Amino acid sequence: MKPHHQFWLILILGFAGLYLFRELGPTNYAIGVLTRCMILAIVAVGLNLLIGQAGLVSLGQAALYGIGAYVAAWLTLRADVPFLPAVVSGVVAAGLMGAALAYPSVRVRGVYLAVITIAFGLVFQNVLVEWVPVTGGTLGLTGIPRGEVFGVRLTRQIYFWVAAGSLAASFNIVYALTYSRYGRAMRATAQSENAASALGIDVARTRMFAFVVSASLAGLAGALYTFLNLFVNYETFTFFQSVSFLLMVIFGGIGTLLGPLVGAGILTYVPELFQDFREWQVFFYGAMLAAVMFLMPRGIVGTISKLAVWLTARPQTRDAKPWPSPAALPVTMVGGHVEGTVVAEIKRFTIRFGGLTAVNEASMSIKAGTVHGLIGPNGAGKSSLLNLMSGFYQPTSGTMQFLGAPTAGIASSHLARRGLARTFQNTELFGDMTVLENVLVGLHCQYKATLAETILRLPRFFTEERAMVGEATQLLELVGLTDYADELARNLPFGHQRRLEIARALALRPKLLLLDEPAAGLTHGEIEQLKELVQTLTAQGIAVVLVEHHVDMVMSLSHEVTVLDYGQVIASGEPAAVQYDPKVIEAYFGTGDLLVPASENERPPVVAGSA
Amino acid sequence: MEQILQFVLSGLSQGGIYALVAIGYYMMWAATKAANFTHGDIFMLGAVSTVILAGLGIPLPLAMPLAILLSAAAGALIERVAVRPFNQGPSSVGWMLTTIAIGLMMESAFTATYGPLGKPLYSPLAQSPIRISGTGIYPQELLIPVVAIAIMLALEIFYQRTIVGRAMLAVAANRIAAGLMGINVNRISMIAYAMAAGIGALAGILLAPVAEASPAMGALIGLKAFVIAIVAGMSSARGVVFVALAYGVLEKMIEGFISTGARNAIGFGVMILLLLIFPNGIFGKREVVKV
Question: Which residues in chain B touch residue A104, judged by CB atoms under 8 angstroms apart?
Fold first, then answer.
């Protein structure tokens, strides 16, 4: 079932179920419980975006929920703010707090967010109890009036539908983000930070965005909770509640659409059964979390849908098409720079790691429409130089001009957006995304539709998405992988992974393409095809830097070759000239006279094994 | 002036506890790029099990090492059962959830059986406070930072001089390469967790005579220690201990000059700010991306 079918099915069946429930004439208590369940589900839906897409965990969701609740309560009680603005303020406050927590913590390692959010949750509780004039201390804020919208008083019966509508809206937001470039970017950062930033995605910002969305939804839920419960108290917003939100997502199935809704339902109704456990209640929650993790890490929905896929799967035959097929080159890439103009100019690049100078005063000039070979023995500094050029390392000294502008201090993701693409020595694909999605991530920066257009699914979103899928398909055709479009990237054979990585890099519509050992692990036939592809690209004016150990390939393709040894450029020029440069021969084979027959040599021959 | 001396001494004492727990987070993190998230509960286990063992009539000099051994075994078990299977790949978060589950279960199991209230542990060093110009402090409290620094120095020797310690450094630097050099990476990780747990338990035992041993004693301290280890940069025991001691003193200063209620909020705010200024931690080196 396609995601958008799932989405509409859940929405329609959900509302039908709610309608039926109301027709059965439930008690006020039952309506209240279900309303609360829907409010908690809003938090779970938001948290699912964070965990399932961005791969981050928050253990302070209850505190963000609490911020929404307290802000709405305080504004209503102390400033007579009406229902709608109070709720909106709750959302904004929680979102801002989310940004403040995420920015410092996700830059280095996503895991840190979990620690920071837990700590924040505990401090939040502390503040609620201690800051009596604002929060009412342990008593909390009481006597909150029921909300009113456009003159309609929000009684329990009506509020039920307000909660349902808010849940549907939140569900829609998360669905729309998940199946758009935003969700793809989040999944990409979760699976390979390096590849994501090489494709122009700002990893820290993407993570922050995911957290701000989930924090805002928690704030929305909190504000709604305030007008359901009509009083707020610190006891609702505990670490334990944060764990319970997490459980909802995991129980239901991380990353699934329906999962958090199922999870919220279970965790609202099951604890009522646990009341008798008393002091063992927390133990039971812990045991439940452990049991799910050990026995059913995909959660209920995830496990069932996996089972369904397994039962209905039919074997398919897929064939890699001959490649490259230059005819498939997307129009966006046809005709670039005039051959020969300088694309990148490197002057005296140097980088030191502690005492080791990996690259030492290396200078290079890379011209449009040409292949610039970069060779040298292992450890010569080739990859370091590539990392310097693509912004993964910042040089100790030296400069680079890319398309006429200096690159000093510019992050790799920004360079990528300017048209500097690269592949990795050890392929870094987004393994759990499909082949097509991998290329679509590469197109991330070409999208023009705004966030609002994406969430509301306005026409431009669809036309653009179709155009991008078209371009991505063309790129797959270029490398002969169209048949594999819906296969997970990690299932591809190695040679195909290399091809996919090149197609993905081309999605940036690069002016300069850095290939880091693209032929490593390829068969002889594949190498010939790769050469053909590189020539196709240079014919379009793309500048290619080729780091390779296959000297034959480098020599036959390159217009210019630079040889590195111990971080220094020891030779540079046309392939033929470089090949016979004594310094190059020495770097690769040592001093020359070893190969000279012993009879012509004045020294006594070296006898193996002699003492 | 006397007041400040008092804050510094009791702050160092508090910081010593953070240091011993945070060292554990550092060791686990170095070995596995993961940790027992609720390491604070191991700290609690050390204190509470000593009290229980002592209650059974086992003399303290025997009960304490027993409790430390027990906690180390728990640490090793957690590594094997809850961390290793759930720490596949750089962005896995499963270990976080499984260790939290275990922490929740431990804490609530002790609350239900041992009781939620704290029980004191006897120590000859916590009987009569030393008077330092008007204010009193137990010798036990002064002992804590001394032990923390001693453990730190011992660890440094362990890392530099012993074969297991060097293997641990190798695993921290590059897990795969260490494995290829014939180091049993899994066993080294397990040893790191066991050692971390032993040190954490020792911290609990040191604190119990002055603050009582209760099932809830570990949660907050564990968390603060984790934040401290992150802010320090997860790069060396020395850095972790330094930040921990400084944080302890900062907390006492906030308590003394502002209010007890503001302690956690301000302390946490300072930590967030430090992380904002030093994204890799104060003593952390910028990680070179391997591409």
Answer: 272-273, 275-276, 279
Which residues of chain B make contact with A294, given a CB cutoff of 8 A? 98
* Minimal Cβ distance to B100: which of A107, A126, A289: A289
Pick from B91, B261, B272: which is nearest to A130 by CB? B261
Residue A448, pLDDT above cutoff 60:
yes
Rounded distance between C-alpha atoms, residue A191 and residue A187, angstroms: 6
Helix axis angle for A203-229 and A28-48, nearest 10°, is 170
Comparing CB atoms, the residue among A126, A250, A425 nearest residue B264 is: A126
Sign of the Cα torsion B169, B172, B174, B175 reads positive
Say whether pLDDT at A131 is over 70: yes
Q: How far is B173 from chain A (nearest CA, A)?
A: 15
| Residue in chain B nearest A101 by alpha carbon | B272
pLDDT per residue over A193-219, tens digit each? 899 999 999 999 999 999 999 999 999
The alpha carbon of residue A119 is apart from the nearest alpha carbon of chain B, in Å, by 7
Going from the C-alpha of A272 to that of each of A164, A275, A516, A544, B105, the distances in angstroms are: 22, 6, 59, 65, 19
Which domains, from first to last, does chain A contain? 3-310 (1.10.3470), 326-429+508-593 (3.40.50.300)
Chain A 487-526, CB below 8 Å of chain B: which residues?
Answer: none
User: How confident is residue B91, by pLDDT bands cut at 50, 70 and 90?
Assistant: low
Q: What is the pLDDT of residue A282?
A: 81
- Summarised one tens digit per residue, pLDDT across range A590-609 is 765 545 444 444 444 443 43
Domain B2-277 sits in CATH 1.10.3470? yes
Query: Which pLDDT does position B238 carry in this prediction?
Result: 92
Is B102 an 8 Å CB contact of chain A?
yes
**Bridging pattern class, strands A405-406 and A397-402:** antiparallel
Supply B263's token pair.
């302690």
Residue B5 in contact with partner chain A when CB distance is under 8 A:
no
Distances (CA, A) of B98 to A60, A190, A290, B80, B226: 17, 20, 6, 12, 17
When mean pLDDT is compared across A149-153, A166-170, B18-22, the lowest value belongs to A149-153
Rounded to a whole number of angstroms, the distance from the CA of B153 to the nearest CA of chain A is 25
| Spatial distance between the Cα atoms of A208 and A110, rounded to a whole number of angstroms | 10
- Rounded to two decimals, the ipTM of the complex is 0.86
For residue A385, which residues of chain B lie inside 8 Å, CB to CB? none
- The arithmetic mean of pLDDT across residues A9-32, rounded, is 93
Q: Chain A within 8 Å of B275 (Cβ-Cβ)?
A: yes
Q: Do residues A70 and A180 touch, judged by C-beta distance below 8 A?
A: no
B 222-241 residues with CB below 8 A of A? 223-224, 226-227, 230
- Whether A337 has a pLDDT exceeding 70, the answer reads no
Alpha-carbon torsion, ordered A13, A14, A20, A26, to 10 deg: 160
